[in-house]
Design goal:
Number of helices of chain A: 2
Structural class of chain A: alpha+beta
Shape of chain B: globular
Radius of gyration of chain A: 14 Å
Strand content of chain A: 25-35%
Distance between the termini of chain B: 74 Å
CATH architecture of chain A: Alpha-Beta Complex
Number of domains of chain A: 1
Strand order of the largest sheet of chain A: 1-3-4-2
Oligomer: heterodimer
Largest sheet of chain B: 6 strands, mixed, barrel
Order of helices and strands of chain A: EHEHEE
Strand content of chain B: 5-15%
Largest interface: A-B, 13 and 16 residues
Distance between the termini of chain A: 26 Å
Number of strands of chain A: 4
Chain lengths: 80, 873
């Protein structure tokens, strides 16, 4: 086997970004929620490992959608 | 009654023998229930201290009557301990992983401490106890006392063996007693529970209120299944005690003990594998504790999640084309029983007085009157004249169901929200519920004996809610794809086709007759044709009278043949539909116009532009118009619609013969080994595919030949082409050739070795031998063909049966998973705890019900409307 494969290079993996603190605040205020009410993503997820996110971070995922063209969703990174 | 309170938490635990004795109000010793006079025997299973169910008696514990006494528990002291069947597995784990002598866990102190630390602070300790169990399994010497461990085996349902010796429940209990609590905790037992409680020494007896006896009309008492089971337990328990007392041989005591174990086990659950179920004297299987709770008819799914209701009725349904779309015909008999609670006000007092005077037997009457102080008067017996006089605002009258009342109408299976809709009542003679034909596709109802349910909302709030949210008109647009799903069915389509096709000319009398049947009273437009001094109107003109002014739409009808060059308005089939300003100018109306569950161009446009009320009214009228038109213009069909001339028949024969030859040829090539395999297929598969191809082709070809003689002058063809009923395939199967029968998408091959039926040679791969039916339905099938046809038909039946069962279960699981999700005002989809499931419903936030064919907006349609250009493309 060659070097470690970066899952972000795969065509089917959408764009993941770690949100800054201000952005997190904005998101939580917009939906009026606690971070735990967001959908979760495990810290063992290959993409989470690849971008170096830690439990407690919130990810912004931008992906193609058959209905809306582009859809933005958020994930709360949990231990696992 | 105490006021209801919110449940904060539920705690499941085991009862210790002392707990049971403390809860118990009496020890039960006799198996008898009642004495000769029918009075409960003291210390028997029906002891009056356990509560009362018969009226007139008082509970000896709490002193209250059957209505207020909640019942009280008793207990049975078992002569010998027995294991609790539902705890055999934890018992097995505990026995395996502790020392047979000192009772300590088979782990050294350090390892045990490590595991204890790991358990510390964890909500669920199962994970750890699983690991403990694993690490203990190989130990054969106790690290605490050095005792050699023997292998313990568990034989279902409740026997434990150590080496060759059987462990009696007494031995087991003794061992469990020796396990220190901190060690049992390691194995997943809560610290407040002692493991030996899993072996019963005392049995809790539920109150009589849990197992009431029934008195039949004959006066014979019949006891509940649980009571029967408890009688068995007490009998055996008593015999066991006596035998032990008398010092009976070991073998007899063992046998009785085993029997006691069996009875106690079946008392908890009568569905233990490996244990014959306990039966009633009649041979019926007893329904004991766990069966009361389990399954579809158990306490949870049957009584708590599902309940029975009042103010409902069920009857056979039948059609009534004269009813409005949103009406339901209710038999007078039913209307006299179902009531609506109506509060008397100064506005309706005279009306209510009249209902009260008429009483329960005459239709628009009333059954009960409730005075403001809560007293109920039964109008069957009360002085109605007097009551009517005394009626004043504040009284409540339970009056009969009458025309215009809102009711919910339902047909099972309730698969989508359109399976329950709000209708308006129309009281009529007869004994069936009547409904408009246009709503049949929604309920999936037909009239071969279908029954439907009706519910009467009682409060004003409920009535309004039903009317606003559930009315039939509100369901014209499907929430599934945003198009109309209510529309014409069957003859509605043929009728309107006959009316709107070219060449339909109507005299003044005929035109008036049709319009009045549709309920249109407007005067006729200018006649289209004046011939020989007589005025004639086209069917299109008559149909246009139902369309709202200003409606513009252009589309292709169902009968459109899809010609490579569309002739548009000059289409020779008149399949190019043009409506301008509510006037049908070109084209015929067929399934694409307004058939339920089809394209519904006309209805779609109408709902969007004019709303549901207008559309519902259009449907009311157009269905009556089309039926009237079909009646006036004449429409019938019979098997000679599928007649084809002998020359055509010969040509079909020829085509079939050619195909047969071609198949033989293919087989020969295959036998010679010269067949070229298709990529990824074996030779045999290639041959099958090629043969199937040839045979499918010839079926289509035979159909084509026959179709040349099946023109739109043929009523059966009219039905198929307009989409009213049946398909051209159905017709060609009747007229020309049925075609290849298949099971699992392959030609028939199973039956005898190398052949389906003994009429063929083994290994015959020819068309006939493998289920090709060359006859038509009309000619009739040959016996062998008939058998092949039955084989193919059987698959269809099995498929539908399997599909309904599977999809039903899938739906149940989906509902359980999705029932608490909802769309919040900010567009997010959240569950019952406010956790986000989707950030924007469907990722685009579009309600499919309000979308145009799945898209939020149809831009070209809007542009066309604004610019005023009506032409398509």
């Amino acid at each position: 086997m060659g070097g470690e494969f970066d899952p972000r290079r795969h065509v089917l993996v959408p764009k993941h970004e770690i949100l800054s603190e201000e952005e997190v605040k904005e998101i939580l205020a917009r939906y009026r929620i606690k971070p735990s009410q967001l959908p979760w993503i495990k810290s063992s997820d290959p993409v989470v490992k690849a971008i170096g996110a830690n439990p407690g971070d919130i990810l912004k995922i931008t992906r193609e959608s058959p209905t809306a063209g582009k859809a933005v969703v958020y994930r709360y990174v949990v231990k696992g | 009654m105490r006021p209801p309170r919110a449940i904060e938490s539920i705690h499941f635990t085991l009862l210790s023998p002392d707990d049971i004795r403390r809860i118990s109000v009496t020890r039960i010793v006799t198996a008898d229930t009642y004495d000769e006079d029918g009075f409960p025997i003291e210390r028997g299973l029906m002891d009056r201290r356990l509560g009362v169910v018969d009226p007139g008696l008082r509970c000896k514990t709490c002193g209250s009557g059957p209505r207020d006494c909640p019942g009280h528990f008793g207990h049975i002291e078992l002569a010998r301990p027995v294991v609790h069947v539902n705890y055999v597995e934890p018992i097995f784990d505990l026995l395996r992983s502790t020392c047979r002598k000192c009772g300590r866990i088979l782990l050294s102190e350090e390892v045990a401490t490590k595991f204890r630390e790991e358990m510390e602070g964890k909500k669920s300790w199962w994970e750890v106890s699983d690991k403990v169990l694993q690490s203990v399994s190989k130990v054969d010497k106790c690290p605490h006392c050095g005792e050699k461990q023997l292998e313990i085996k568990f034989e279902k349902p409740f026997t434990f063996l150590e080496g060759k010796n059987r462990l009696t429940p007494q031995d087991i209990r003794a061992r469990l007693e020796r396990i220190p609590t901190e060690d049992s905790t390691l194995l997943g037992v809560s610290p407040e529970i002692r493991p030996e409680w899993m072996v019963l020494t005392v049995l809790l007896v539920p109150p009589v209120t849990v197992r009431p006896s029934i008195t039949l009309e004959t006066g014979v008492r019949s006891e509940d299944d649980l009571t029967h089971k408890l009688v068995d337990i007490i009998r055996i328990n008593q015999r066991l005690a006596e035998n032990i007392e008398a010092g009976a041989p070991h073998l007899i005591v063992e046998d009785l003990w085993e029997l006691l174990q069996y009875h106690v086990a079946t008392y908890f659950s009568n569905e233990i594998s490996g244990v014959p179920p306990a039966r009633h004297r009649s041979g019926r299987v007893l329904r004991t504790l766990s069966q009361r709770l389990k399954g579809k008819e158990g306490r949870f799914r049957g009584n708590l999640s599902g309940k029975r209701v009042d103010f409902s009725a069920r009857a056979v349904v039948s059609p009534d084309p004269c009813l409005k779309l949103d009406e339901v015909g209710v038999p007078e008999q039913v209307a006299r029983v179902l009531t609506v609670r109506t509060r008397v006000t100064s506005f309706n007092i005279e009306e209510m007085r009249e209902y009260v005077r008429r009483g329960p037997k005459v239709h628009p009457g009333a059954n009960w009157v409730i005075s403001p102080d809560g007293k109920r008067y039964d109008l069957r017996y009360a002085d109605r004249e007097e009551l009517a006089k005394n009626l004043e605002p504040g009284y409540v009258v339970e009056r009969h169901l009458q025309n215009g009342d809102v009711v919910l109408f339902n047909r099972q299976p309730s698969l989508h929200r359109m399976s329950i809709m709000a209708h308006k009542v129309r009281v009529m003679p007869g004994r069936t519920f009547r409904l408009n034909l246009c709503v049949c596709p929604l309920y999936n109802a037909d009239f071969d004996g279908d029954e439907m349910n009706l519910h009467v909302p009682q409060s004003e709030e409920a009535q309004v809610e039903a009317k606003v949210l559930m009315a039939v008109q509100n369901q014209i647009i499907s929430p599934r794809f945003g198009g109309p799903i209510i529309g014409g069915v069957q003859d509605h389509i043929t009728g309107v086709y006959l009316l709107t096709r070219r060449g339909t000319l109507l005299t003044k009398e005929q035109a008036h007759q049709l319009l009045i049947e549709a309920g249109v009273t407007a005067s006729l437009p200018q006649p289209a044709v004046v011939r020989g001094g007589k005025e004639y109107w086209t069917g299109k003109q008559i149909f246009s009278q139902l369309l709202p002014k200003g409606l513009n739409i252009t589309y292709r009808a169902k009968i459109c043949a899809g010609c490579s060059k569309c002739m548009k308005e000059e289409c020779e089939k008149d399949a190019y539909v043009v409506v301008r300003d509510g006037e049908l100018i070109h084209g015929v109306i067929d399934a694409h116009g307004y058939k339920a569950l089809d394209k519904c161009e006309l209805l779609d446009e109408m709902v969007r532009e004019y709303g549901e009320e207008v559309t519902a009214e259009f449907l009311n009228k157009v269905t009556r118009l089309s039926i009237a038109a079909a009646r006036m213009l004449g429409f019938t069909t019979s098997i000679d619609d599928e007649d084809i001339p002998p020359i055509t028949k010969e040509r079909i024969e020829e085509a079939l013969e050619k195909a047969r030859k071609r198949v033989e040829q293919l087989i020969e090539i295959y036998n010679r080994g010269e067949l070229e395999p298709l990529p990824g297929r074996s030779l045999r598969e290639t041959l099958e595919m090629r043969i199937m191809e040839v045979l499918a082709e010839v079926r289509d070809k035979a159909g084509e030949i026959a179709e040349k003689h099946l023109s739109l002058a043929n009523p059966a063809v009219i039905m198929a082409r307009t989409g009213a009923r049946g398909s051209m395939l159905n017709l060609t199967q009747m007229a020309a050739c049925v075609g290849q029968q298949s099971v699992r998408g392959e030609r028939l091959s199973r039956g005898y070795v190398g052949r389906v039926l003994p009429h063929f040679k083994p290994g015959d791969l020819g068309a006939e031998a493998r289920g090709f039916v060359s006859s038509s339905y009309k000619e009739g099938l040959r016996p062998i063909e008939f058998f092949f046809h039955a084989m193919g038909g059987r698959e269809g039946l099995v498929d539908t049966a399997v599909r309904t069962a599977q999809s039903g279960y899938m739906q149940r699981r989906l509902i359980n998973a999705l029932q608490d999700l909802r769309v919040e005002y900010d567009g997010t989809v959240r569950d019952d705890r406010g956790r986000i499931v989707q950030f924007l419903y469907g990722e685009d936030g579009v309600d499919p019900m309000r979308a145009d064919n799945g898209k939020p907006v149809n831009v070209s349609k809007i542009v066309r409307k604004i610019i005023g250009v009506v032409e398509e493309d």
